[in-house]
Amino acid sequence: KNAAPQVYDTAAIQKADSAHYLHPFTDFQDLASKGARVMVRGEGVYLWDSQGKKIVDGMSGLWCVNVGYGRTSISQAVYRQMETLPFYNSFFGTTNVPAVQLAAKLAQISPPQFQHVFFTSSGSEANDTNLRMVRRYWDLLGYKERHTIISRHNAYHGSTVAGASLGGMDGMHAQGGLPIPGIVHIGQPNYLEAGHGLTPEEFGLKAAGWLEEKILEVGPDKVAAFIGEPVQGAGGVIIPPSTYWPEIQRICDKYGILLIADEVICGFGRLGRWFGSELFGIRPDLITFAKGVTSGYVPLGGVMVGERVAKVLIEQGGEFTHGYTYSGHPVACAAALENIRIIEEEGLVNKVAEDTGPYLKQRFASLGEHPLVGYADSCGLVAGLNLVRKKGATVHENELFDEEQGVGMICRGHMFDNGVIMRAVGERMIVAPPLVMTRAQIDEMTDLIRLCLDKTH
Ligand code: PLP
């Protein structure tokens, strides 16, 4: 199995890498000076690099390899589909069988308001689709002014021009003239940063209230939609207080604003539900998905379109002039069908809800007792911990490291060297392991994390 060559010339690969390959989100010169780590093989929750080192993949690749590496039934499904029909588009009156089957399957596993799906190849393209779709929806209803979309600071919604504009990351907005017009941002429900003097529940209501303030500032008749990740991922695993989402839902309902749940990370079992919005009891009108739909084996994304929007688009819309060559790609859809079959057969959604999610929470709570950790929390199989110089009496009184010290990156370096992948967002260290991770593997991962915290201390 995985008949990869055993010996790699790492230096030669690194040389060619820096000579020709511009990596995403990378300081090219910095990478060239250090040399990229070359990953060559994966099995279950483990990766191997070109020097034969085994690594626990605490990040599921990039939050996507939900069913773990080395699933031959997915590669076989992909192979069979490539042999049968490697490509055909869904433009101009045609369709293909895996795309139809997957659309029906997604309608079955998503909340009842979702009966339709628009396919893309990535989460970014899906959010571009959202932007155009919600504006088209309001145009068709005769509200042509209703084009503003409200998002949150530090949100991540992709890297295309619309995706990065919807996202709220200053570093991205600083490059390329973003955000584009018609997109505004409010604060994120980050209790650690903004919840001083409040209980988490009080803070959740306060943070949701920023949405209402922004709606009133922009004008309710100009706001098309609010977009948010149920749990913010790339912004640092920001798990909102329990009061936040129900209040957001109430405000969206009050002003008739569409609610878009970006579930690119939270979907397909990550939070112990098929979709994270189910955990928080909200009823989005649109759901963005990608990553876990195929466990990253083949690129695929899309938008689940709720009946409120679908009905208008279908019955009043005529042609929707939007789409991608690879919308409904048969090979990607075949991979997704097999991936979802595995998730169902192995009961991975319930396993996260009832077994490994609570276990990870317990293990992270014990990491929270480490002198370097000022705060640790988790939701399903995402978790984070904050590195602090000194703990205070409350989480708001912790003494923080100076950003310039780069303690998060130092800690991440120890993780990398000691065989576990954890991501650093400033001083917040995060994991999102494959949903197949067992309790014993959670122990292995958290023991390695503890070791690296000791080394960082
Ligand atoms: N939305 C969220 C919540 C994400 O986390 C990501 C990627 O990390 C995206 C959208 C963009 O997806 P992609 O990288 O597939 O374009």
From TrEMBL:
Entries under InterPro entries matching the protein: Aminotrans_3, Aminotrans_3_PPA_site, PyrdxlP-dep_Trfase, PyrdxlP-dep_Trfase_major, PyrdxlP-dep_Trfase_small
Top-level enzyme category: transferase
Sorted UniProt keywords: Aminotransferase, Pyridoxal phosphate, Transferase
Similarity field: Belongs to the class-III pyridoxal-phosphate-dependent aminotransferase family.
Cofactor: pyridoxal 5'-phosphate
UniProt cross-references to PANTHER family, sorted A to Z: AMINOTRANSFERASE, AMINOTRANSFERASE CLASS-III
The organism's taxonomic lineage, starting at the top: Bacteria, Pseudomonadati, Pseudomonadota, Betaproteobacteria, Burkholderiales
Listed EC numbers: 2.6.1.-
Protein name as it appears in the record: Putrescine aminotransferase
Record-linked Pfam families: Aminotran_3 (PF00202)
Molecular functions per Gene Ontology: pyridoxal phosphate binding; transaminase activity
Gene3D superfamilies, alphabetized: Aspartate Aminotransferase, domain 1, Type I PLP-dependent aspartate aminotransferase-like (Major domain)
Gene Ontology CC terms: cytosol
